[in-house]
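A common beginner's mistake is to predict each chain separately and then try to dock the pieces by hand. The better habit, illustrated here, is to supply every component at once so that their relative placement is modeled jointly.
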Amino acid sequence: AQSVTQLDSQVPVFEEAPVELRCNYSSSVSVYLFWYVQYPNQGLQLLLKYLSGSTLVKGINGFEAEFNKSQTSFHLRKPSVHISDTAEYFCAVSLYTGFQKLVFGTGTRLLVSP
Amino acid sequence: NAGVTQTPKFQVLKTGQSMTLQCAQDMNHNSMYWYRQDPGMGLRLIYYSASEGTTDKGEVPNGYNVSRLNKREFSLRLESAAPSQTSVYFCASSEGGESSNEQFFGPGTRLTVL
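With all components supplied together, the output reads:
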């Protein structure tokens, strides 16, 4: 079975600083990888996803993520964060085949302060 | 388009009471999902419906039942609520069951069981 690990439960950062949110996964078969964002008191929305091809994936709001197969990682990065990026970020995986059932990590809360 | 809507937004129940959480989507999606979100545990799949007329158990189905009423609506029922079911419940939908698809989430229902 696949699993997702987000080691950092909370990441504090100052506005305009760069940030990296870490995600590692384990699976015995190939997977698709996703990052979702949850703003306070809202549902989740897709930031970006990796399906195949280029290992660097660009998403909305200036975020990008790099798929590293050898390290089984899919870390999320942004070169300069804004106050409005304060939210919880979830990494998720889904098997290549069969019906999509996302497995989520435990989430990382990004706290951006002035 | 309203996307995915959920009712109610908040609910407080006493142990043993029953209730139904409602979910509807207006995107003509085939697949629908119910998740629960608990602190430090991310989102966990309760039940899903791959297409109209079908439902299947997810990771944590005990204590819940679902009904796919039609293509638009997917309800979650708690027959006899327990304090362990205190959580935030999210409904989601996707165009189809393919693993690469994006899931669209509702705003959530915050349930407290006393």
